[in-house]
TrEMBL record:
Protein origin, superkingdom: Eukaryota
GO biological process per UniProt: proteolysis
GO MF annotation terms: cysteine-type endopeptidase activity
Occurrences of domain Caspase family p20 (ranges): 58-182
Protein's name according to its UniProt entry: Caspase-3
Lineage: Eukaryota, Metazoa, Ecdysozoa, Arthropoda, Hexapoda
Span of domain Caspase family p10: 212-294
Organism: Anoplophora glabripennis
Transmembrane regions listed in the UniProt entry: none
Gene for this chain: CASP3
Amino acid sequence: MSLEIDANVNVSPPSQSSTPLAVNEDVFDFAGLDEVEKFVERKHFLTDTFEYPRNGSDPGFVLIFNQENFENERDRVGTRRDVNEITECLQRQGFNIGKSNIIHNASPEEIKAKLKQVSEDENLKDCNSLIIFFLTHGKEKDKLLTYNSSLTTNDIWKNFINCRYLENKPKMFVFQACKGGSFSTTRKTFITNEPSEIVPSDTFSQTYLGPDMLIVYSTIEGNVSYRNSLTGTWFIQELCKNITGYGKRDDVFSIITRTTKCVCGNYFYHESGVNKKQMPVCMSTLSKKFYLNRNKDRALVLMSRNYYDDVLKHVKEIKESVDTLLT
């Protein structure tokens, strides 16, 4: 078992990992995904007034790009564990994920062609959201590595900025990759007098991001992102745990916040007297709450809240009537 990084920089990994052992990744087989019966969202459950509309019958379209093998870089051993956990946790939330939703070791041309195909698919009209994962090695300035080439994070989401089938729908893009060769530490991450670039500055240009988007990076600009060869990456594993635990109750932004806390607080390795850590980061142009699904648990909470609001309204009316009688 070893701890590795998702970058092409030459750094020495720690001798020990803070994550537990897991079964060998070769046991994971995605061949049976298409045999699962398609889930249809249950529209009779209540939704929050402040959340995105859920007019379609499909919770959302999921696409996973998994870059495991490279011509001139170390293979990303353990990434299949991440793919397995992403698939399982989202299926538990009602997402329909088949073999065609998982793309392994694609070239930039194949990736761009797949994204273009998806963005022009009329079936997106029936999807309430879009979620894309990209798991790979990375460099500074949002560069993502493929087998023998590279592309940028903007190449992943730009096809969906003006996608008419996803207008006014939430779109989430998750990048598990290094963004440099530096290490976060407790002091460096939270207490510093020097300005630091959390994400590349051109990310905030008017034409770079679109509306209703949530961009999630496993680490801040310039830093590495850790992957355990047996248990997967720190960030993806914690994200999947939190989706499984809170996906039926909390909105996605709250889940990302909780995941960031878990990665920062629960993971580190000690080397040369320093606790080296990882700091995820996200950017949002969401204008409403983004929930993964409709479900009975959240519907009951909303019913209770509505009942409570009705009670308060009647109490106020009674008080006003009593005040009128006493005057």
